[in-house]
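User: Sequence recovery, please. Input:
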């Protein structure tokens, strides 16, 4: 099922590119790029090629497959395509087309049929079938500044999404945030992505106002998201407290069973395994609820 889902994701990514005017690359080398998101993804291609080359040289075909799988699914589909939505200019079209071509070349040894189909569909190149395409050899290394900016943005968006889920807020809820002044340059540079992907309708710098808020720590910097007027603080605190008490009670009950030698020694291995899995799940739930309560201040 996992690889079928991957094939579907790759197919949908190619269709998204096609629908947005992104087509086959006309260059073996990476296109010129000025935008941080494009410089970042080009660097990620270079890192993935290096990882695959090393794994293939060591005959670790599993590691090579995992490297391109992770890059295509996470870096390209989950993040790059999301980051460029609504801002696909000519530079981005060229970069996205080039990156998708490199993905198809690197995936071809592992998924020959679907990659050949997508390669053919992305552009007119009947005289250059995928099986004869040159193996990627980008001359550019990771752009340190672009990587730092985009990695920070991904961490921030992930933290915001986690906080919303913990606090029962819809994913599309637009919030305000107070950043340390040290982040002003980075926030200004990534303003469009903060508005669209992080769903931040306003960003200010300096101390946050008093009141309940979510505290997000990203790379050692604390970002404050006020919650007054966004949720009913008292009701949410009460809900989380009750849910935490219930999860903790179940967690402790399961811990008691697992600490009982009689249960561990006499019960069926499947029952012991299920108890351990249930305990781990309840422990994780209690940790999540504790974090959510802490976010309320």
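Assistant: Recovered sequence (297 residues):
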């Amino acid at each position: 099922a996992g690889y079928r889902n991957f094939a579907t994701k790759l197919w949908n990514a190619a269709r998204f590119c096609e629908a947005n005017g992104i087509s086959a690359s006309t260059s073996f080398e990476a296109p010129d790029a000025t935008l941080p998101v494009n410089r970042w993804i080009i660097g990620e291609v270079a890192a993935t090629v290096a990882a695959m080359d090393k794994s293939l040289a060591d005959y670790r075909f599993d590691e090579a497959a995992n490297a391109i799988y992770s890059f295509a699914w996470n870096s390209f589909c989950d993040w790059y395509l999301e980051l460029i939505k609504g801002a696909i200019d000519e530079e981005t079209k060229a970069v996205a087309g080039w990156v998708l071509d490199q993905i198809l070349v690197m995936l071809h040894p592992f998924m020959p049929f679907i990659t050949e189909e997508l390669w053919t569909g992305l552009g007119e190149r009947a005289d250059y079938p995928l099986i004869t395409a040159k193996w990627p050899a980008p001359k550019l290394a990771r752009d340190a500044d672009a990587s730092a900016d985009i990695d920070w943005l991904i961490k921030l968006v992930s933290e915001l999404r986690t906080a919303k889920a913990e606090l029962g807020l819809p994913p599309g809820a637009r919030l305000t945030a107070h950043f340390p002044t040290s982040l002003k340059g980075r926030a200004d540079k990534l303003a469009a992505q903060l508005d669209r992907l992080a769903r931040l309708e306003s960003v200010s710098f300096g101390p946050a106002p008093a009141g309940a808020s979510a505290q997000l720590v990203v790379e050692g910097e604390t970002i404050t998201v006020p919650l007054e007027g966004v949720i009913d603080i008292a009701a949410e605190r009460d809900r989380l407290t009750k849910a935490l008490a219930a999860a903790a009670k179940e967690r402790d009950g399961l811990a008691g069973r697992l600490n009982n030698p009689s249960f561990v020694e006499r019960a069926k291995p499947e029952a012991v395994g299920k108890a351990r899995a249930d305990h781990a799940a309840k422990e994780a739930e209690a940790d999540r609820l504790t974090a959510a309560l802490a976010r309320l201040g």
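Residues 145-226 form one domain.
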